[in-house]
Design brief:
With 600 residues, the protein is mostly beta strands. Among the domains are: 160 residues, no CATH class; 104 residues, Immunoglobulin-like, CATH 2.60.40.790. The protein has 4 helices and 41 strands. The strands form 10 sheets. A 5-stranded mixed beta sheet has the order 1-28-27-17-16, with no helix packed on it. The protein has a 5-stranded mixed beta sheet with strand order 2-38-35-34-33, with no helix packed on it. β8 and β9 form a beta hairpin. The radius of gyration is 29 Å and the shape is elongated. About 3% of the residues have low confidence. One of its GO terms (cellular component) is nucleus. It is found in: Cytoplasm; Nucleus. This is NudC domain-containing protein 1. Pfam families: CS (PF04969).
């Protein structure tokens, strides 16, 4: 059970006397530069029609900042080159755009791919994907404006599936406790058809079905290990998030995650251990006279047939059946029902399973048709060998009775009413998003808080910290920083800054595409998809540009909150936005705009 915690705002960061923003007509320096190679924004194809696809493509930001250097920014061109931007050069007529690395391109067509993404895991390490299924670990060297070091790929992997598109959401590099090696954690987002998701438990546990949720978001947590100069795969965990992912980050030192999403969600796959509830040995190794029948099976010279009985309402999404050359595993929802080594090898390609009215039939094709099977699963006494399907049907009533007795012994009771009896007015909306801490060692959610306000945006934090996120609180936007696990206190999120009235303002901007704020939180910028930029300077911003006078009293006001509106000279869609303490950057397909917001 998760430990509930609260997001408690700091009163000293709130301003109850805030009266609003004053419109300023001051002009800001705007520098427009053509990019060396155009930027292409990929869009969903005809098969990617879910809301989760639209969200993943539509909110992709093509400008990438670097937590380890506030003097550079990056973007990926249409031909998959990674360019570095020297921010100080943008005020000159000769801006510095340097191509650092060419992402390998294995296919000519990028139809169905996500947009290429880049994340900086350490001061000299980055992870890159082409958006089409390949993950690259890249040595970047020190990323300063003057360093001309070209990047080098250290490992390229299709660990998340060949030609399966994904987007990198966060990455973090951590040294192990012995300092003998390093561990790289990468978070990748995939949106897949539920029939293609590899899972160790049934997706129906999270309410998934082809009719209601044909697509599902999966958060892939991949870990690599760096030992003696070589990178190697370490572990993969997969979390199912049916209603879509809002935020995900790795918490220092890389043993837990912070996730914002709607329930239900949970882990469905772990490459190092099974996440399904195990079958107790006491259920398998019983005296033959006391053993309860769990399945029946028979054989012919060509094949072995296994029957198992479940509730009549059981669908294929309630079951996970894994057939291997000499092993069989059946999971019902999140409980293992049958697992073990088969008596003899089988042909996996010609073996199959079906389900009808709660009765599952597994057909295993023999490799050696001259062998007779004395048992199905080694040391599993719960099965009965029968002559044919008719004899197996006689055992169904016995199996069903055993299932009902098991429910009675465990205190299970039939429901008071069926969910089918509920009408639309009885349905309780579950629109609340929550923030979770997921422990990678126990595969459990340890902390949970219900978000009382809308998630507005998230922004980069100091090196080694998870990105911060902004939540609406009343009319304001509050910045929250997820804590690392090194602190000797209960986990939570720290309130670090407030953007006055931002929640109210953002709700009125229907054409808004990006919301960004710099590390020092002196302003926030809302960027429309086309042309308009709204900048909201906080009262603590020293770059006011003009001294104001309070008319009723004649008192001079040094710093006030101000609003500035800009109209960008471009008909192209805004593909990226990035805020630094000095500059606001906007990227279109062919141009980069640098707006000098604050003087150094």
């Amino acid at each position: 059970m998760e430990q509930l915690f609260e997001l408690r705002p700091r009163k000293d960061l709130l301003d109850p006397t805030f009266e609003g923003y004053k419109l300023s007509l001051d002009s800001l320096p705007v520098y427009k530069h053509e990019v060396p190679v155009a930027v292409e924004h990929l869009k969903p194809n005809e098969e990617q029609f879910s809301f989760q696809h639209v969200k993943t493509f539509g909110l992709h930001n093509h400008l990438i900042d670097d937590p380890w250097s506030d003097e550079v920014a990056f973007f990926i061109s249409k031909d998959l080159q990674i360019f570095k931007i020297n921010l100080h050069s943008l005020v000159s007529q000769s801006p510095e755009f340097k191509s650092l690395w060419q992402i390998p391109r294995y296919l000519e067509s990028r139809d169905g791919w996500f947009n290429a993404s880049l994340s900086f895991a350490g001061p000299e390490l980055a992870v890159v994907t082409d958006g089409g299924g390949v993950l690259h670990i890249v040595d970047t060297g020190v990323r300063t404006p003057t360093n001309s070091h070209l990047w080098q790929a250290k490992l390229s992997s299709e660990v998340l599936g060949k030609n399966d598109p994904f987007k990198i959401t966060h990455s973090m590099l951590n040294a192990t406790e012995s300092n003998q090696s390093e561990t790289l954690s990468v978070l990748a987002l995939k949106v897949e058809s539920i029939d293609k998701v590899e899972s160790q438990i049934a997706l129906s546990v999270f309410g998934c079905s082809e009719k209601e949720t044909p697509f599902i978001s999966c958060l892939e947590w991949v870990q690599y290990e760096h030992v003696d100069g070589h990178w190697s795969f370490k572990q993969l965990k997969r979390l199912a998030i049916p209603h879509g992912l809002d935020y995900a980050s790795v918490l220092s030192p890389g043993k837990a995650l912070c996730i914002i999403a709607r329930e239900p969600l949970g882990i469905i796959f772990d490459s190092n251990k099974d996440v399904a509830a195990p079958l107790a040995n006491s259920e398998i190794m019983q005296d033959e006279t006391e053993t309860k029948i769990a399945y029946t099976w028979t054989e012919s010279p060509e094949e072995v047939t296994v029957w198992m009985t479940f509730d009549k309402q059981t669908s294929k999404h309630d079951l996970v059946v894994k057939i291997e050359s000499q092993a069989l595993k059946v999971v019902y929802k999140n409980q293992t029902y049958l697992v073990g080594e088969l008596a003899h090898p089988i042909s996996v390609g010609s073996s199959t399973w079906t389900l009808s009215d709660g009765k599952m039939e597994v057909i295993l094709s023999k490799v050696d048709k001259s062998l007779s099977w004395n048992h199905l699963i080694q040391s599993d006494l719960r099965g009965r060998k029968v002559l044919d399907a008719e004899t197996a049907a006689d055992y169904e009533s016995v199996i069903n009775m055993g299932m009902k007795e098991g429910q009675a012994e465990s205190g299970g009771r039939p429901p008071v009413f069926s969910s089918e009896q509920l009408e639309e007015c009885d349905d309780m909306p579950m629109d609340e998003s929550c923030i979770f801490r997921f422990d990678g060692e126990t595969n459990e959610f340890t902390h949970k808080a219900i978000l009382s306000g809308q998630l507005l945006f998230f922004t980069q934090s100091a090196p080694g910290l998870a990105p911060a996120f902004c939540l609406r609180h009343d009319v304001d936007g509050l910045i929250w920083q997820p804590m690392g696990d090194e602190l000797e206190q209960s986990w939570g999120c720290l309130h670090t800054a407030a953007l006055q009235a931002l929640g109210y303002i953002q709700a009125s901007k229907e054409q808004r595409k990006f919301t960004v704020a710099p590390p020092n939180m002196t302003y926030a910028a809302l960027c429309d998809a086309f042309s308009h930029i709204y900048i909201y300077r906080q009262s603590n911003c020293t770059s006011t540009g003009v001294e104001m006078v309070h008319r009723p009293t004649g008192r001079r006001v040094g710093n006030i909150a101000r609003q500035q509106v800009l109209n960008i000279d471009s008909t192209e869609e805004c593909l990226g936005a990035l805020a630094t303490n000095s500059f606001l950057l906007l990227l279109t397909s062919s141009s980069l705009f640098a707006i000098r917001v604050n003087s150094d």
